[in-house]
Please model this.
Amino acid sequence: MKNRLKKHLPNAITCANLFSGCIGIVLAFKGELIAASYAIFLSAIFDFFDGLASRVLKSFSGIGKDLDSLADMVSFGVLPAVIMYQLLLEARQIDNISQYLNFIAFLIPVFSALRLAKFNVDTRQAENFIGLPTPANAILIASFPLILDHHNKYFTPPLQNPWVLSVLCVVMCTLLVIEVPMMSLKFKNRDFNQNISRYLLLLFSAILILFFKFAAVPAVILFYITLSLIQFKFLSASMMNTAQKES
Model:
């Protein structure tokens, strides 16, 4: 019984991620975007804990990896696309353009699928990511309805502009598949020096969210991307210097 629980617990958590994503899609199509956004956050929590459970219980399987990608496709691909589509419908409509422009939101699941499929076969992503992870992209989109609900004077006008939303869709889709290394938030050990970038990100995120609440999420994602680029730039430089010394 204990072995069966150990084997199936991570997959059960992944299924909870998928279930939350499905509920979120229903809510989003009904126009309940705040609740749909919280469904993404809930799915992200399940996504974190299924990986944690796998590592702690040492329960790894091929089906678990594929199931995780399928769940992520729904929760972090389709659900954020439906939220973005609804935001485009609620934005200022442009005659003879918006009826077609609104569908740009569904590029998000297309590029999310490419991102997830690539992750499953790309051996370079065992320790870190190449391109923006789908949960980070989905969390960014989930913050938009919450920011609008709080009537943030800086973010509300852009998020009600269909052209801005369309450009955001294109930028986010590009970030999903771009050949740029991104930091993983998985703590392999407790060594501070090896995890300093992760600690900085968590500290910066906590401070921003404390003061700015959901309006901080875009800044946190931008900081994550910037920190990843800095980290891997220094890492590449260090590896190059080591190689030169050895030669």
